[in-house]
Automatic annotation (TrEMBL):
The lineage of its organism: Eukaryota, Viridiplantae, Streptophyta, Embryophyta, Tracheophyta. Residues 1-25 form the signal peptide. This is GDSL esterase/lipase. One of its GO terms (molecular function) is hydrolase activity, acting on ester bonds. Keywords: Signal. Gene3D superfamilies: SGNH hydrolase. It comes from Carya illinoinensis. It comes from the Eukaryota. InterPro entries: GDSL, GDSL_lipolytic_enzyme, SGNH_hydro_sf, SGNH_plant_lipase-like. The keyword Cell membrane does not apply.
Length: 351
C-alpha cells in the first residue's frame, strides 16, 4: 500500500508526466489543402468565375456573412478545428482580413474547382495543388519569422493537415472534356490521380507535415447537378459515378498504407466521408432532412456560384431541411453531421 501513498515528490513527477503527455499530443493548428469541400475563401481574390463571396452564400454563417465558403454556413475544417479546441473557423490564406498571427492556429490553402490533375484546375483557372504547396512554403517562412524557428517547426510538425479533393478531376474534367478520356480509361485515370495524390503527400511530408487526414471523394453521382443531367435514369443518382468514387477511395487506402510504411513518422489516415454521406443521402429523414434530390439555392437543380442569386424566388427558406446547399455542395447541417461522424476518430488518432 505504501506505493499508493503519494509523497509530494511522486505527485510532482505524476503531474509532470500528465503535462508532458498533454503537450505532446496537442494539435496546435489545422492546415487545409484541397477544393471547394474545404475552401474558406481563397477564390475570392483570384481571377476565376468560381466564387461564392456573395449572398445567399454564408447566410447562416456568423453575421450572415458570405466568406467564399461554398455553403450557407461552416464547412468541415471549421467544425474539426473547433473540436480540437482551436478557432471555430479556419481562415483562407489569401484573405487580406487575416494575418500570420491568425494563421498560426489554422490556415486554409484550398481552392474551389481544383483537382489533383493540373488540367482540372485549369478548367476554371483556380489554384493548382502545386501552387497550394507554394503558398504553404510562403506560410512556413512567415510562421518562422513570427514564432521563431523552433516553435514554428513544432507547430508545423504537430499540426493536423486536412486534405480533401478529387471530385472535380472526375466531374469537371474527365467526364466533361474529351482530352483525358482519350488518354485514359477511368481506371487508368484513377491510378493517375492516385500517383499525383501520393506525390503531393510525399512533398507535404518532405516539408514537415506528419499528421495528415486525407478525405476521398463523396457519393458524387448523387450531387443534385448529376441527378439533373441523369435524364435516362429519371434523375436518380448516377451510380456509375458512385462506383468510381468507391473504387478511387479504395485505391487511396492502399496508397495510404504504402506511404505510412515508406515515410518514417508519417501518420496518414483516410477519412471515410463516403459512407456517412451516403447514409444521409439514402435515408435523409433519419437525420431530419426533407429534401435530398434538389438543393436549397435557386431551383436546386443546376445553380452554383454566380447562378446562386439572392434574387431567386425559388431559394429555400430553411437550409437545415436540405442535404445540399447548391447543386454541388452540402448544407452546413450536412457538413456538421459528417464532421461529427469523423471527429471522434480524428481526436483519438491525432490529439
Ligand atoms: C503541374 O504543373 C506544375 C507547374 O507547371 C509542374 O511542376 C508539375 O510537374 C505538373 N504536374 C504534372 C503531373 O504534370
Amino acid at each position: 500500500m505504501a506505493v499508493l501513498t503519494y509523497t509530494p515528490w511522486l505527485l510532482a513527477i505524476t503531474e509532470f508526466l500528465i503535462l508532458a503527455s498533454i503537450t505532446k499530443s496537442e494539435v496546435p493548428a489545422i492546415i487545409v489543402f484541397g477544393d471547394s469541400s474545404v475552401d474558406a475563401g481563397n477564390n475570392n481574390v483570384i481571377a476565376t468565375l468560381l466564387k461564392s463571396n456573395f449572398r445567399p452564400y454564408g447566410r447562416d454563417f456568423a453575421g450572415g456573412r458570405p466568406t467564399g465558403r461554398f455553403c450557407n454556413g461552416r464547412i468541415p475544417p471549421d467544425f474539426i478545428s473547433e473540436a480540437f479546441g482551436l478557432k471555430p473557423t479556419v481562415p483562407a490564406y489569401l484573405d487580406p482580413a487575416y494575418n500570420i498571427a491568425d494563421f498560426a492556429t489554422g490556415v486554409c490553402f484550398a481552392s474551389a474547382g481544383t483537382g489533383y490533375d493540373n488540367a482540372t484546375s485549369a478548367v476554371l483557372n483556380v489554384i493548382p495543388m502545386w501552387k497550394e504547396l507554394e503558398y504553404y512554403k510562403d506560410y512556413q517562412n512567415k510562421l518562422r519569422a513570427h514564432l521563431g524557428n523552433k516553435k514554428a517547426n513544432e507547430v508545423l510538425r504537430e499540426a493536423l493537415y486536412l486534405v480533401s479533393l478529387g471530385t472535380n478531376d472526375f466531374l469537371e474534367n474527365y467526364y466533361t472534356f474529351p482530352t483525358r478520356r482519350a488518354q485514359f480509361t477511368v481506371q487508368q485515370y484513377e491510378d493517375f490521380l492516385i500517383t499525383l495524390s501520393g506525390n503531393f503527400l510525399g512533398e507535404l511530408y518532405g516539408l514537415g507535415a506528419r499528421k495528415i487526414s486525407l478525405t476521398g471523394v463523396p457519393p458524387m453521382g448523387c450531387l443534385p447537378l448529376e441527378r439533373t443531367t441523369n435524364i435516362m435514369g429519371h434523375h436518380g443518382c448516377m451510380e456509375k459515378y458512385n462506383n468510381v468514387a468507391l473504387e478511387f477511395n479504395g485505391k487511396l487506402k492502399t496508397m495510404a498504407s504504402r506511404l505510412n510504411k515508406e515515410l518514417h513518422g508519417l501518420r496518414l489516415e483516410i477519412a471515410d466521408a463516403y459512407n456517412i454521406f451516403n447514409q444521409i443521402i439514402r435515408r435523409p429523414s433519419l437525420y431530419g432532412f426533407e429534401v435530398v434530390e434538389k438543393a436549397c439555392c435557386g431551383t436546386g437543380t443546376f445553380e452554383m456560384s454566380y447562378l446562386c442569386s439572392d434574387q431567386s424566388p425559388f431559394t429555400c427558406k430553411d437550409a437545415d431541411k436540405y442535404v445540399f446547399w447548391d447543386s454541388f455542395h452540402p448544407t452546413e447541417k450536412t457538413n456538421h453531421i459528417i464532421s461529427n461522424h469523423l471527429i471522434p476518430h480524428l481526436l483519438e488518432k491525432f490529439r
